Amino acid sequence: MVEDKKKMAIAVMSGDMDKLFGAFIIATSAAASNMDVTMFFTFWGLRAIKKNERTGKSLIGKMMGIMEGGDINKADPSKYSMGGMGRWMFKKMMGAKKVATLPELRQMALDLGVKFYGCQMSMDVMEIPREKLIDEVEDCVGGGFFVEKALEAEV
Q1: What is the end-to-end Cα distance of the chain in Å, rounded?
Q2: Share of residues in the chain with pLDDT > 90 (%)
């Protein structure tokens, strides 16, 4: 008898380093445990699946792109950022403990079959076109799509 895989759905709403680490560690742990995992990236969480390219067409959109500050490599911790010093210190401490980097965890998630989806409404508001996301993103979808995935999931 073949048993269906358990499913997990994760909404990633923050682009902060520590919150992205948490989301990717949970996703990779679940995928490594033979679960189907869906990650839905919305608003600031889109940073995790963005290329390191400026976004925005309007003045406000361009300003948001500048203030947002880049891709997954530029994620600052939610506390103790100190103008980038916090990011540097955390990366040093994690490197000393042989902890995978955020780009490595993202790639590990992809290698384990985790599915990435961008929030189309957030992308429209923040003026982030599809081509500014990494190629591995499955699709850009609405919140209703994530709700369906969450309802199907056990976790």
Answers
A1: 23
A2: 71
- Give every CB contact of residue 128 below 8 A, 6+ residues apart in sequence: 46, 50, 55, 56, 65, 118, 122
Cβ within 8 Å of residue 130, ≥6 positions away: 118, 123, 137, 140
Parent domain of 65: 7-152
pLDDT above 60 for 88: yes
Compute the Cα dihedral for 14, 49, 17, 147 and give only its sign: positive
pLDDT for 150 beyond 60: yes
Q: Is residue 1 part of a domain?
A: no
14, part of any domain: yes
pLDDT value at residue 63:
83
How does residue 54 score in pLDDT terms, banded at 50, 70 and 90?
confident
3-state DSSP assignment of residue 151 = helix
Task: Give the rounded percent of residues in the chain with a pLDDT score beyond 70.
Answer: 98
Maximum distance among all Cα pairs of the chain, rounded to whole angstroms: 58
The enclosing domain of 75 has a CATH number of: 3.40.1260.10
Residue 37 CA to its chain's centroid (Å)? 13
Distances (CA, A) of 138 to 88, 117, 135, 141, 148: 31, 6, 8, 9, 16
